[in-house]
Design brief:
mainly alpha; three-stranded parallel β-sheet; two-stranded parallel sheet; 10 helices; about 55% helix; globular
Length: about 230
Amino acid sequence: MTFHPLPTIQSMLNLYEKPRTDERFQAYLKLLQGDSKGDLVMPIGGYNPMAKEGLVLKLKELQTLKAEQIMAEVLTDINLQISDNQHPTTFKVALNLSDDLQGGWTNRFTSDYDSKFKINALVNRQFCTPIFWSSEEFTEEVIKQRVAEYVFRTVYWLENPKPKTLKDCVEQEQFVAQKTGLTSQKWHFETSEDFYQKHQDSDNYHLIFNFFYGNDASKSLEFPCF
C-alpha cells in the first residue's frame, strides 16, 4: 500500500471567499461529491462549509507553515517504512481542519472519536483524513505527528478487523502509539485495570467513549459515565 497527498487547503480557502450562503454550501457539496451525488471525490467532511473568519485564519496559518508539503514528506517516509507491505491499495491523504471553537455542528469529542474509530467509509474509498482543530496551536512537529497517526490508523484497519470493542479500540491506539511515538493525543483515562479487564469485550459506545474521553466529556453530552 502507498499513501499520496491530496491537497485541500487552497480549495477550501477559495470556497471560503464566497459569502456564507446556500451558494457556498452547494459549492462545498460539489467539491465533496463531484458530479456524483452521494459519492466522495474530495474527503473534506471534517471542514465546516459555512466556516467563519476565525477558521479561515487558522487555515491560512497551516498554509503558511507549508502543512501539505510537510505532509507529503511524511508520506514519503512512511511509504518507505511499509514498502514490504504487499497490499495493492493506494490511498489519498487529505488534511482536514475542523472548527471546534465556532463550528456549530462540530463537537470536539465525538468528532475526534469518529475520526479514529469510524473510518470504514473513508478506508473503503481509499482516503485518509488527518484532522486538525481550530483550537490548537500548529507547529511542524504537530503536523508531522498528526499525519503519521492517521496514516497508521488506516494501515491498522487494513491489517485487522475494524474495532468494535473497548479492547479493539485500545489495541488500535497502542499500535498507532508504537508506530509514531504518539504524544499529541492525551487520553483522559478515568478507569482502573480492573475496570478494563471487566469491560474490555464491551461494544457499548458510551462506555468506550467514556473510557477514552473521561467523565467531563461524557457529562457535557449527557452521556452516561462509568
